[in-house]
Design a protein that fits this description.
alpha/beta; Rossmann fold; DNA polymerase, domain 1; 11 helices
Length: about 230
């Protein structure tokens, strides 16, 4: 069956989130007197990633994550400060970072010629909408940008994908394809929702016991054409 709908993840599928996170963290660290070092970035990233995994499992909310991530960082570093204020500054700085991965926009534009394209992303609406505007991808996707913070549910939950399908008018889910880099968010969510999946692996091998097995594997989004042909 030919696909009619392509559902793209955002961070590390279309956006260069690693570069954006680094830029935003370094700016924020300097503002709050935290040494802007690679070691401190790695510490923050580990704390942040763990909290996002908890969001995926339904253990914490986005508000919890924003309250905790910099509070825990400051505690780990023994640096005084207000974690909520630091988070607000980070959100502001991250909103300015709209770097896309090489060839990402072109891949979406090619897919759009023969498919309905949409974004499926876990994230803070203020951040994601600003970054899409700065990257120009908002003009490509139009209204089809579905942010967990606006839908009231997150990937990989069934509620999130049910709402996306409802808004896009997807009746036969075999006609849609989830494209993303996260096995625990994009691929697991797609499998649970009965939607075919394409894992953007960046050369990573599929784990021996993956949370979900994708239908297709590509190294990066520029290879999507072969899957769609």
């Amino acid at each position: 069956m030919k696909f009619r709908y392509i559902l793209f993840d955002a961070d590390n599928t279309l956006f260069d989130f690693n570069a954006a996170e680094r830029e935003a963290f370094m700016r924020t660290a300097e503002e709050f007197g935290v040494p802007p070092t690679d070691a401190n970035l790695a510490l923050y990233s580990g704390i942040n990633d763990a909290l996002w995994k908890q969001i995926e499992r339904g253990e914490v909310t986005s508000a919890d994550m924003q309250r905790l991530r910099f509070t825990r960082l400051l505690e780990a570093l023994g640096v005084p400060g207000d974690g909520l204020q630091m988070n607000a500054a980070y959100v502001r700085n991250l909103s300015d970072c709209g770097m896309t991965l090489p060839g990402a926009r072109e891949a979406v534009e090619r897919a759009k010629k023969s498919h309905t394209v949409a974004v499926i992303t876990n994230g803070i609406p203020q951040v994601q909408r600003s970054r899409y505007g700065k990257s120009g991808l908002d003009a490509v996707f139009g209204e089809n940008i579905f942010i967990s913070g606006e839908l009231g549910a997150s990937k990989p939950s069934a509620e999130y994908f049910d709402e996306v399908c409802r808004r896009l008018g997807i009746e036969d889910r075999r006609e849609a394809l989830v494209v993303g880099d996260s096995l625990t968010s994009d691929i697991l969510g797609g499998v649970r929702a009965g939607i075919p999946t394409c894992w953007v692996s960046f050369g990573r091998p599929l784990p021996d016991d993956p949370p979900a097995v994708p239908d297709y594997i590509i190294d990066d989004v520029r290879e999507l054409d072969a899957t769609l042909s």
